[in-house]
Amino acid sequence: MNAERIINTSAASSKRRWGPRMWPYLFALPFVLTYAAFQLYPVLYSFVLSLHDWNGIGDKTYVGFKNYVQLWTNDPLFIKSLWNTLIMMAMFIPVTLILGLTLAYWTFNLTRGKRLFQTINVLPYITTPVAIGFIFSYLFDWQTGIVNLLLTKFEILEEGFYWLQDPWGSRAIIALMVIWRNLGYFMIIFMAGMTVIPQDVYEAAKVDGSTGLHTFRKITMPLLRNIIVFLVVTSVINGLQLFDEPKLLYGGWSGSAQVGGPDNTALTIIWKFVDESFGSNTRFGYASAIAYSLFLLIVLFSILSYRLTAPKEDKR
C-alpha cells in the first residue's frame, strides 16, 4: 500500500510539474508546424531539387552538383546577371547613403515644415512597384518622355536619346528608380539615429567652437556608425535580390516583354532565376541551383560589407 501511495503521489506531482510547462509548447506548436510546412520544407526540398534535372512534369533525374558546375562555368548569362547586379548596386548604394544622410541632417535641423518634408520623401517608399515602373517608363520614353523633351528643348541634345535601349542608360535608370524609392526610408532611419544622440554633446562642441560641418564629420557621423553598418548590410542583401525595378521597366507592362533589357544589360540574378523557373525553358533544378548560389552570395557579401563598415572593436 505504501509503495502504491508513493507511486500515485509521484505521478500526481509529475503531472502538476509538467502541466504548466507544456502550455508554451502547445501555444507555439501551430507556428512551428506552419513554419516547418511552408518555410523549412520548401527550403530543404529546393536544395534536393537543385541536385536533379527536372522540368516540373516528367521524372526527376539525379545529376549531383552538375547544375552548380554548369551555372558557374558554362552559363554566360548568369555571370552577366551577377555582373549587372553588382554594377547597379555600386551605382545606387553609395548615392542613397550619402543623399539619405545629407537629407536627414538637413531635415533634422529644420524648424518649420519638418513633418511635411518627411512625408514627401517617404511617399515613394510606399508607392507600389507597378506605379514606379509606369512613371519611369514614361519619363524616359524615347518619343514622349519628359526627360528627352526637356533635354531637346534646352538644346542639350539634338534628338531624343534611347535611354531604355542603351546598356548603361538602362542600368542608370534602374539605379535611379531604387534611389528614388528608398531615399525616404534611409532618411527616416538616419533621423531616428540622430534623435538618440545626446544634445549635450552638440552643446559642448559648440562651446569649443566647432562649426556645423566639423560637428557633422567628427560627432554626428561617428555616432551614426551602427546605423550606417545596418543600412549598408541590408542594402547589399536587397541589392542582390533586385528584381522589381528591372522587371517592371522591361517586363511587358506595355504588352511587349523584353527579358533582361537591351542585350541583357538589365538582367539581374533574381530575374534570371524567375526566367529559368517560369520561362519558356522551365528548369526547376537549375533554378534551385541559382537560388542556393544567391543565398551563398548574400552571406558572403553581407559578411564582407559588415567587415568593411563595422567599427574595429566590433570586428574581433
Automatic annotation (TrEMBL):
Coiled-coil spans in chain: none
Transmembrane region(s): 23-44, 86-108, 120-140, 172-197, 223-243, 284-306
Keywords for the protein's UniProt record, in alphabetical order: Cell membrane, Membrane, Transmembrane, Transmembrane helix, Transport
GO CC annotation, single: plasma membrane
Database matches in InterPro entries: ABC_transporter_permease, MetI-like, MetI-like_sf
Topology within the bilayer: Multi-pass membrane protein
Pfam family, any one: BPD_transp_1
SUPFAM superfamilies with a match to the protein in the record: MetI-like
GO biological process: transmembrane transport
Principal location: membrane
Localization of this protein: Cell membrane
Positions of the ABC transmembrane type-1 domain: 82-305
Signal peptide segment: none
Family per record: Belongs to the binding-protein-dependent transport system permease family.
Name under which the protein is recorded: Cellobiose transport system permease protein
Lineage summary: Bacteria, Bacillati, Bacillota, Bacilli, Bacillales
